[in-house]
Amino acid sequence: MDMGINIQPADRINKLPRYLFAEIDKKIRAAQDKGVDVIKLGIGDPDQPTPPYIVRRAAQEIEKPRCHNYPPDEGLTEFKEAVAFYYKERHNVELDPEREVCVLLGSKEGIAHISACFVNNGDINLVPDPGYPVYGIGTMFAGGEIHRMPLLAGNNYLPELQAIPPAVADKAKLMFLNYPNNPTGAEAPLAFFNEAVEFAKKHNIIVCHDQAYSEINYDGYLPPSFLEVKGAKEAGIEFGSLSKTFNMTGWRIGYAVGRAEVVEVLSRYKTNIDSGTFKAIQYTGAEAFTHPDKEMFRQEMSAMYRERRDLAVSALSQMGFQVRVPKATFYIWVPVPARFAGSMEFVSYVLEETGVVLTPGRGFGEYGEGYFRIALTVETKRLREAMARLRKALSA
Ligand SMILES: *Cc1c(COP(=O)(O)O)cnc(C)c1O
Questions:
Q1: How far is ligand 1, taken at its centre, from the CA of residue 132, in Å?
Q2: Are 125 and 270 contained in the same domain?
Q3: What would the mean pLDDT of 93-105 be, rounded to a whole number?
Q4: Pair (215, 230) in one structural domain
Q5: Same domain for 274 and 195
Q6: Would you say 223 and 180 are in contact if contact means Cβ atoms under 8 Å apart?
Q7: Nearest CA to ligand 1 atom 2
């Protein structure tokens, strides 16, 4: 039989780690085929809709012919000004909307592409482990190598910068950081950001801070921006997202802000690849940051996740788990019980016994082994049911 041409993916594709959820997805489908009522605490995708004030603005913009052609390469001024407004209002950070803000197709897109902008073959990026997988994948696509920065419970899930060998630090181009942190739920004090700026200046490294979860926070804690510390705007950029804050994961809009030269290179790179974010969505994104309802909505969402957090933390503690109570993010990071060989075994056991989907820590890197992650992205009633099933399966 003639199979036509022989399809050989590039090395970079073959080097991609097997998709974290592929094996779990297979098990979920098998369970669903058997009629099991699956409760998904795996993927961190908000379960609530985008707020009406945002959807309304989008509906209006879509009707307007001014939105139907290519957006400007440099992004819409309205959106960039709205991002600058948010930074001033929330973080007391001044940004020049034209030089210090880059519009992204979701922050993941910028995180994936920043390495291509600065990394040559064999260069090193410093990557947190456990961490969002895109930092390492973007590095690999650019031909770079990663140096893992372990995030350990004993150090409050902050990387120990002094433990990075100076020869590695001197060769490093980018340092990825992410607070409030996915997957650990940990937060970083300003003192740590200060330390990161000093380290970056000493070794000439661009800090890339990902603050996707800054607006989901509890108990009066307001996560700082990396750019709040002195010298940060010279030392790097911050990625931000509307996805988790405004339940807009499907809309694909985010931004990078900070050091003007870095923003310029990223924008120039993107100009050659995509043609920007749909103008209706950029106008809508501007509305998200500036509408008077935004603060009420943000508080409502945080209150909703806080109720779920308290329920999960209390149920898990009663089961004997050592749980760290997160002050931000919608994740809970929990050590796997000692009688299981590892996080994948534990998560598979729980899925098969209970129909509850968890994420194995191993999927976030080698230092994630021994943990699992719960995403608080289901309603309280379902979360309570999941906890009851878990308790039953673990006491059996
Ligand atoms: C969800 C997430 C993002 C990506 O968000 P988008 O703006 O939707 O691309 C980035 N970083 C972390 C850590 C995330 O969890």
A1: 8
A2: yes
A3: 98
A4: yes
A5: yes
A6: yes
A7: 212
Indicate if ligand 1 lies below 6 Å from the C-beta of 178: yes
- The helices-and-strands tally (H runs, E runs) of the chain is 14, 12
- Collapsing DSSP to helix, strand or coil, 19 comes out as coil
Token pair for 251 = 């809309």
Domain contains 80:
yes
Atom 14 (ligand 1) nearest CA = 212
Q: Is ligand 1 within 6 A of the CB of residue 305? A: no
Residue 176, domain extent: 52-290
CA dist list (Å): 249 to 15, 45, 47, 161, 237: 27, 7, 10, 32, 21
Of 242, 258, 290, which one is at a domain's C-terminal end?
290
143-153 pLDDT, tens per residue? 999 999 999 99
Report the CATH number that the domain containing residue 377 is assigned in CATH: 3.90.1150.10
- 7-55 tens-digit pLDDT: 999 999 998 887 667 788 889 999 999 999 999 999 999 999 999 999 9
Instruction: Identify which of 182, 248, 270 to mutate to test ligand 1's pocket (most ligand atoms within 8 A of the CB).
Output: 182
CA of 108 to the centre of ligand 1 (A): 5
Specify whether 22 is located in the same domain as 159.
no
Average pLDDT of the chain to the nearest whole number: 96
CB of 359 sitting under 6 A from ligand 1:
no
* 251 in the same domain as 357: no
Dist. CA 317 → ligand 1 center (Å): 29
Give the Å distance between the CA of 255 and the centre of ligand 1. Answer: 11
If pLDDT is split at 50, 70 and 90, which confidence band does 136 have? very high
DSSP 179-197: SS-TTT-----HHHHHHHH
Q: Does residue 164 form part of some domain?
A: yes
Domain count for the chain: 2
Task: Decide: 209 in ligand 1 pocket, CB within 6 A.
Answer: no
Where does a domain end: 254, 271, 290?
290
Q: How far apart are CA 107 and CA 323, in angstroms?
A: 29
